[in-house]
Amino acid sequence: SLQEKGLSEKIYKSDSRVPKYRHLFIKKFNLSQREAAVLCLLMLRGPQTTGDIRGRSGRMYEFEGLNEVEEVLTGLMDKEQPMLVKLPRRAGRKEPRHMHLLSGEAGIKEPENPVPEEAATLKVRAEDERIAKLEDELAALRREFNDLKQEFSALKSEFE
Q1: Following DSSP, what letter does each residue of 68-104 receive, concatenated?
Q2: CATH 1.10.10.10 is the classification of domain 31-104
Q3: Which of 80, 72, 84 is nearest to 34 (CA)?
Q4: pTM
């Protein structure tokens, strides 16, 4: 249990009929508030980029900038027993992600079905072909419309 591992404790208050629990995560691992915010965010949301961490941690700790987040991430990676790892940048992704190691390294794996890099290119190429076809049809319809306008004008001038 969490109590046996020293991660929580039961609290009895005089004004409460039921016991409450307090987490001791920060004390157990000797973490600062900003380190705890990063680890909690990674446990809750899974692997995150530096920008994701800064943008989503506001309720627990307000980081001044990306440099401060990087400093915390580096500190957590450089501990005697690292608490997080920087994952390699995946194909099609701009930034690397960071993941906590509190449940061990078993969670670190490559995606089973990585999206081929060509998929986006093929989709764009198909859309380009579709747009070109629509533009050709539009040009043909405009020519036909202009021909009909000329025929109508000629027919109209015969009756005047």
Answers
A1: HHHHHHHHHHSSSS-SEEEPPPPTT-SS--EEE-TT-
A2: yes
A3: 72
A4: 0.60
- The Cα 87–Cα 96 span in angstroms is 6
Q: What b/e readout covers 113-146, taking b as 16+ CB neighbours within 10 angstroms?
A: eeeeeeeeeeeeeeeeeeeeeeeeeeeeeeeeee
Instruction: Characterise 6 by phi-psi region: left (phi > 0), alpha (psi -120 to 50), beta (else).
Output: left
Q: One digit per residue, pLDDT tens: the chain, 160 residues?
A: 788 888 889 998 888 889 898 888 888 888 999 999 999 999 999 999 999 999 999 899 999 999 999 999 999 999 888 899 998 887 777 888 999 988 777 555 555 555 555 667 777 888 888 999 999 999 999 999 999 999 999 998 988 8
